[in-house]
Amino acid sequence: MTPLETAVLCLIAVIGHLMALFWLCVEDYEVDLSRDRIYDLPIKDPQVRRELKNSLHTPLHAIILLIFLMAGAFSDRTFAGFFVSLLVTALWAEIWHYASHRAFHLKSLHWIHAEHHKSRLSSPFTALSFSFWEKLIFDLGIVGMMAVLSLAIPVNFFGVASWFAIYLVINSYGHANYEIRSEKFMQLKGRFLTSTVYHALHHSRYTGNYGLGTRFLDRLFNTEWPDSEAVFARVVSEKRPMKSLRETAGAVTDSR
Predict the structure, then answer these.
(1) Is residue 254 part of a domain?
(2) For the purposes of burial, counting CB atoms within 10 Å of the CB of 102, is it exposed (0-12), middle (13-18) or buried (19 or more)?
């Protein structure tokens, strides 16, 4: 294993915690990025302590990547392979996250996902707060699939690792209790991509809005909360945070 590969593994092992701390500081010091609060509710200390404890096995993805790398997977080192591997990992992760996430909400499997949902009001550290089994299934499903794919086509280690780095950065502020995007986001990109508000509704309402980075599968399978855009407008455009976890923006029928 090269020094660069070692450095990348170390980086993705700790970047989740570093970004969670960064976004917590953004809120604590009232940086402009945190001005659009989603829920006007406090996050209590017991939740923070629980999330910190659960975050101890966050580096599991780096360990799994290391194991497959040592086994000979992900040997491609070309620029083309990097971009193709990054794109394929992102595509598969979107599918795997939605499929496993929906499965974890089934009664028989919800014990795997229940720990994450103890945080009805999410924070940056909620992005790291999973049961060991959920973390293992999510990471192994992504890295394992890419390792299997590497048996047929070249897969680039840095492409797969870069997806994890990007995911951990985005997922950290994606669980914050404030929206950093402007109202222009919903005019184009927000029609296809998820937002912090989008995922906050999943936590507060416990179902719906299962997508990771895009809204495509939620729309395809009719699992999107119909007031997602209205809540975004209320929080970002009107500067009016939600007052309770059960609050909606207009009439909403739960079919999720």
Answers:
(1) no
(2) middle
The Cβ of residue 193 has, within 10 Å, a number of other Cβ atoms equal to 17
CB 143 within 8 A of CB 9: no
Angle at 171 between CA 19 and CA 52, to 5 degrees: 60
pLDDT score of 254: 55
Whether residue 235 is contained in a domain is answered as no
**Which tokens belong to 222?**
């009719």
Q: What is the pLDDT of residue 33?
A: 86
Q: How far is CA 61 from CA 1, 9, 201, in A?
A: 17, 9, 27
What whole-number distance in Å separates Cα of residue 189 and Cα of residue 210?
A: 18
As for how many domains the chain has, the answer is 1
Residue numbers in the chain where pLDDT is lower than 50: 255
Cα 94 to Cα 64, 130, 211, 249: the distances in Å are: 19, 18, 7, 27
> Is the CB of residue 136 less than 8 Å from the CB of residue 82?
no
Phi and psi torsions of 166, nearest 5°? -65, -45
Query: How confident is the model at residue 255, as a pLDDT?
Result: 47
Instruction: Determine the pLDDT at residue 256.
Output: 52
Each residue of 152-185: pLDDT tens digit?
999 999 999 999 999 999 999 999 999 999 999 9
120 lies in some domain:
yes
Q: Which residues constitute the domain of residue 36?
A: 3-180
Nearest to 153 by CA among 226, 62, 80: 80
pTM over 0.90: yes
